[in-house]
Amino acid sequence: MSTAWRAAEVVAAHEETATARTIRLRIPGLTGHLAGQHVDVRLTAPDGYQAVRSYSIASASGAGGLAPDELELTVEELPDGEVSPYLVHGLSVGDQLEVRGPVGGWFVWRDGDEGPVQLIAGGSGVVPLMSMARAHAAAGSSAPFRLLYSARTPMSVYYRDELMALGEAAAPLRVDYVYTREAPAGWPVAAGRLTQEGLGALVLPAAESPAFFLCGSTPFVETVSGWLVDAGHDPARIRTERYGGIGGAA
Q1: How far is residue 128's CA from residue 73's CA, in Å, rounded to a whole number?
Q2: Which domains does the chain possess?
Q3: pTM of the full structure
Q4: pLDDT in tens, 32-62
Q5: φ, ψ at 188 (rounded to 5°)
């Protein structure tokens, strides 16, 4: 991890959903990152006031057309946030941000890890898990990979087309969706929150000893991780990440 603040240039950006945006940054001196890491972003106002927030990296290092000194963040706007509204609506290609990191060495997947992996995302918690899915595909890994993605509506799903493509790749990613407020037309299950019974039907069984990476809001993470332990999964195999960071996700 680099502890120094560095200037990062915005080299591309696109809308992910109506309230989320993916931003590509070029960071001089960056030589790659691990899938699941995050960076700290600092904004400074004209009067000197500073706000720092942590954002998960969405990209896989050096994959998807990115150079080794580039990475992508996907930022969800919080209406009362100090940082996210600017990143989602105000930032332009060519602008610069102060960035520190990448940070983290525990909530990460490495391409040498060959055991089965179950990813579980609640809302924008899919971002670091997408980095893992992309790294898995880029490495041509034979490790079984599955993603359970809980989203409010079909329109709130990040990376939909790419997730579909990853499901058809040589080393496929199986993706299961739970829609909590509105399901697509013809969806076989009514919209509603993930249940303990539903979780058991949608994740790898304890007999396969999968590694879990679980990211979402604190209530979602605490509830689902508890259900996994109740189902016989090894707590040491369950790694969790919650929304927020130095100053909280905003």
Answers
A1: 9
A2: 6-103 (2.40.30.10), 117-242 (3.40.50.80)
A3: 0.94
A4: 999 999 999 999 988 999 999 999 999 999 8
A5: -70, -15
